[in-house]
Amino acid sequence: MSQPDENQLTRPWVDWTARQIHDPVWRLRYLQSVAPAPLKASRWKSRKTIGLLTLLALGLVAAPLSLRRLGAANAAPPVLPELPAASALPPIHLVEPAVSPSTDVWSVEKASDFEVYSNGLRIENQYAVRHRPRAYVAFSMAGAEGRGGEKRTDPAGIVYHTTESLQAPFESSQNNRLKQVGESLIDYVRRRRCYNFLIDRFGRVFRIVNESDAADHAGHSVWADDRYFYVNLNDSFIGISFEAQTGAGEAATSAGNAQVRAAGMLTEMLRSRYKIPGRNCVTHAQVSVNPANMQIGYHVDWASSFPFERLGLPDNYATPSPAISLFGFAFDASFEQRAGVRLAAGASAADRGLVERAEAAHLSLAAYRKALHRRYLKILASQRG
Ligand SMILES: [Zn+2]
Questions:
Q1: Ligand 1 centre distance from Cα of residue 284 (Å)
Q2: Which of 83, 105, 144, 189 has the most CB within a 10 Å radius?
Q3: pTM for this structure?
Q4: Which residues of 144-174 are buried (b: 16+ CB within 10 A; e: fewer)?
């Protein structure tokens, strides 16, 4: 497969590709990146617009406002409850599947543009790029307020995504179109450092951003295992994206069999190499949060249709949402419709735990949530610092 030449891009092709990108900020970035030279003249102005849009989308502008609002509403704040200890959180009922997470997978062959592993995995390396070196803090669940964190450079987990790009019919007559669409997508995601890996429609695994570096895949996000919690997972979790599209609330897996098989082998290799626990292999919909309105489910890719079992992983949808349990994030009435029943079940379980802990702390649910919100914003601020 040859890399598409930017100069050969015709306008209809650019427009078609842009229409596939549902996120307005990413679409704007894409259009700017392929704009002919005259359009780039007002670069400063465009950059400011994109910057503001991005900040708004990521909640960075709203976060300090929220801090001030919370502060103003709490002239005499209630005694801040301790960060719930792991033992106080809703129990996590996860049954590790028969597939051992420690299955040893080793490198069999490594050439300049591909790698082969002992479990059948092949990784294409011709598009691999560098980004910023991976570095993050794993916050200890035992240390309230984010104290007692560990600085790390190895990934602690995996976040699965779908590209949400339009799909050509998966038929032999569409072969050329399927390949063209895939190449265009690879070109787009590598220039934006969107993921560490992309799995195309044929199940080919492309390394995009090297695992030693962070990819910009998860934005504002929260996850926790039984010992640590993680805030903003770009640096702490590897991003794997399927070239696929899922409908709101969909329960059936939208990825093809070849993609699921490849994802299983890739997951097995990464878990073996970095000792990643099964409960830290989660979907973007499970971890995505919006600090501007303190709601979960900002992104809902792989909301209820991820085939955990076929990848040898526990059903992580059953895990109560750590964003709700730890930081009091909420969800609105549209959430179940957007996210589907499996993800909504984990959110509801976490919400019930929150109600119980508020009662135990003799606080109203609203006051308890506010205290947890303040804690989240404080940790976010310390992380930026
Ligand atoms: Zn995603």
A1: 5
A2: 189
A3: 0.77
A4: bebeebeebeebbbbbbbbbbbebeeeeeee
